[in-house]
Design a protein that fits this description.
By secondary structure, the chain is α/β, with parallel strands linked by helices. Helices cover 48% and strands 13% of the residues. It has 14 helices and eight strands. Strands 1, 2, 3, 4, 5, 6, 7 and 8 form an eight-stranded mixed β-sheet that branches. The radius of gyration is 22 Å and the shape is globular. The two termini are 22 Å apart.
């Protein structure tokens, strides 16, 4: 609670108004502080910026990441999986204005569309529907996402960037992690990083079928710290506010979404704690929204994405304000 100078109240009403003002200020500070933690290490230490994605919620991460880089955070490596992999590649590309512009303009049909075979399956009777869906291989056509990624990232700029890129994918058959860096990342690698099994088809890279890296490293902080030993701080972006609750799982889609999101949040928090234990000399911080985004992963609503993008920038700016006093 803020420190205030005490002076006698002229009336009961004035005392109550003063108390309300103090409490309101305290609540505001508390709300802002929830977005980030105080830095425990040197602010000049090289930073690993770790992105986890979450479909359309990646807009919040994009806004926060751009604000951190623009605010002077010395980012040495950017790591990401799922939608976070595309954000990571664009950040390493270096054209920060394009990151925000892409999220402001992206629409659902640019990310996913039902395969014709899936639409056709819905017209079939009984068990034939299941057979047709199984033969389709995935619900969504990957062509729109491939076109989006191809136009969003300049891979020559990524290869020449002073910042290190780490993209995490999963070899589902081999049950192993597969990572890509500035030299090896490609459209196929970024497609694989976002290929949620069942939603998008696996992607063949160098003869191996790869899927979403979130299965093994939703927020790949452990991979980032292992790959870059010079890092002194790690900032992990999680697009779910502290204490945020899901909606009742009353329908199949809602049940699957809630299960996916719960697993993601718990995995990220667990990996952050594990990173703190395994790398005690590194200041590992978790930055989350100051309030729930009210945006579903598959709902690419223009107004919702714009609001998430701006909230990300605002939350990151408040984090910078929390960290900067330590320089005095």
């Amino acid at each position: 609670m803020p420190t205030v100078a005490w002076s006698p109240c002229r009336s009961v009403r004035s005392c109550l108004l003063a108390l309300v003002a103090v409490l309101a200020g305290s609540l505001t500070l508390s709300s802002h502080a929830r977005a980030c933690e105080r830095a425990r290490g040197s602010l000049d230490a090289p930073v690993a910026l770790v992105l986890s994605g979450g479909g359309s919620k990646g807009a919040w991460e994009a806004g926060a990441a751009v604000a951190l880089v623009e605010g002077g955070v010395p980012v040495r490596v950017v790591a990401g999986s799922s939608a976070g992999a595309l954000n990571a590649a664009m950040l390493v590309d270096g054209r920060l204005e394009r990151v925000s512009a892409l999220w402001r303009s992206v629409r659902r049909e640019q990310v996913y569309a039902l395969r014709p075979a899936v639409v056709f399956a819905g017209l079939l009777p009984g068990w034939l529907t299941l057979l047709a869906l199984d033969a389709a291989g995935s619900l969504f056509d990957p062509a729109p996402l491939r076109e989006l990624i191809t136009g969003a990232v300049d891979f020559e700029r990524v290869r020449a960037s002073p910042r290190r890129l780490l993209v995490v994918t999963t070899d589902l058959a081999g049950r192993a992690v597969r990572t890509f860096d500035n030299a090896t990342v490609s459209v196929d690698a970024l497609m694989a990083a976002a290929a949620v099994p069942g939603a998008f088809p696996p992607v063949a890279v160098d003869g191996t079928l790869l899927v979403d890296g979130g299965l093994t490293g939703r927020a790949p902080v452990l991979e980032a710290l292992a790959a870059e030993p010079t890092v002194g701080r790690a900032i992990v972006l999680l697009s779910y506010a502290p204490g945020e609750r899901g909606e009742p799982p009353t329908r199949l889609r809602r049940t699957l979404e809630q299960a996916f999101e719960m697993g993601m949040v718990h995995q990220i928090r667990r990996d952050v704690e594990l990173a703190r234990y395994k790398y005690p000399d590194v200041d590992v911080q978790l930055v989350a929204p100051s309030a729930p985004l009210e945006l579903r992963p598959l709902d690419f609503d223009a107004a919702g994405i714009a609001a998430a993008l701006e909230r990300g920038r605002a939350d990151a700016s408040r984090c910078l304000d929390v960290w900067r006093p330590q320089r005095r």
